[in-house]
Amino acid sequence: MFQKMNKQISPKIVSLTFSVLVVCFAMAFYAYALDWTGPTQDPPGGNVSAPINAASSTQYKSGALGVEGVLRGYSNLIVDGSIGIGTTAPGAKLDVNGDI
Q: Any signal peptide, and if so, which residues (predicted)?
């Protein structure tokens, strides 16, 4: 009833389809790249802060600061709160968990 038909796709059709896809991708990428706007000022001006390790001015960070390795201070330490050694929730100005 049905005849077996061997259909082959023309190489011209494959080439044309591939070319159209490449052109569409290139146009979409180009439109996306044009939407990007660079910074309005040189760092650290504008909307970015100076890196915490690069500035000589006083810096404040809103959030936790984790340090892996040795932490050295070459100035006075001023603490505006409680200090806990061996505890994450100090109950006094200086709270030491364990033996001194």
A: 1-33
